[in-house]
Amino acid sequence: NTAMAAQMTDAHRRFLQVLMSHGIMEGSEARKLHRRCCEIHKVYYAHDKLDDFIGTINSHLQPLFMQIRKGMSEGDGRAHYALVNLAETEITKMASDYTENELELFRKTMDLIILSENGFASSTDILNLADQLKTKKMKKKEAEQVLKVFVEDKWLSEKNGEYTLHTRCIIEMEQYILSNYQDTARKCNICHSLAIQSQVCESCGIGMHLPCVRKYFRAQTEPRCPQCNDFWSLDIP
């Protein structure tokens, strides 16, 4: 395997360091960083070889149970790269940063988001859970603070009082979510990765990311489900 033989250079190391400090990076940022690292360290640069460049880093991260993974933002469909720890399940990884009842609030929030129709949970619904926690009840003010921290730490993102899972969280937790929510977690029918914010066919129940819905129906005169061919009755974003 040639990928294993590919050497880590200072350009690769710098790329990894910057990504580590960000946790997650948008595709265009990662491409800029790739170029900058290669220029600084005078390493051969090819603009279309970012994934190979990352592949080299990943082959060296393997013994450390780390991996740079590519995922997409459910809002706009843009590619993102995140550094993922494969050794610990994601919830145990969070356990070193949060208290028991904060973790319980996160799990319950995740339940609400994944079991919802559209992949969002309202702050009202989340805050109502705060005083029902089994580990230790939380006052609303405290819960609001904790939600803020989850947003800052890129586990959740928030828009107009509605919370959903952050892109970084989805990239890191995909396996965890698919195995812990087998009956409800859906893979997108188009790109086959986990879909939290999605549209669901009213006839057969398949789901699609909103950016995937947009792309898929762009070419069609009449929107029909890619699975059952029934008319797609939802508004195309």
List the helices and strands and how they pair.
Elements (H helix, E strand, L loop, with lengths): L1 H4 L4 H13 L1 E3 H14 L9 H12 L4 E7 L6 E7 L4 H6 L4 H16 L5 E2 H8 L9 H13 L3 E4 L2 E4 L1 H14 L5 E2 L6 E2 L2 E3 L6 E3 H9 L19
Antiparallel strand pairs: 1-3, 2-3, 4-6, 5-6, 7-8, 9-10
Helix pairs in contact: 2-3, 6-7
Radius of gyration: 20 Å
Hey, roughly how much beta strand do the residues contain? 15-25%
CATH architecture of the largest domain: Orthogonal Bundle
Q: Which shape, going by the Cα principal axes?
A: globular
**Class of the largest domain in CATH?**
Mainly Alpha
Strand ordering within the main sheet: 1-3-2
Low-confidence residue ranges: none
CATH superfamily of the largest domain: Winged helix-like DNA-binding domain superfamily/Winged helix DNA-binding domain
- Write down how many β-strands occur, each being a DSSP E stretch of 2 or more residues: 10
Individual helix count:
10
The helix fraction, in percent, is 40-55%
Characterize the main sheet. Answer: 3 strands, antiparallel
Q: Sketch the topology as an H/E string, one letter per element.
A: HHEHHEEHHEHHEEHEEEEH
Domain RING-type: 188-229
Protein name: Non-structural maintenance of chromosomes element 1 homolog
Keywords: Chromosome, DNA damage, DNA recombination, DNA repair, Metal-binding, Nucleus, Telomere, Transferase, Ubl conjugation pathway, Zinc, Zinc-finger
GO molecular function, one term: zinc ion binding
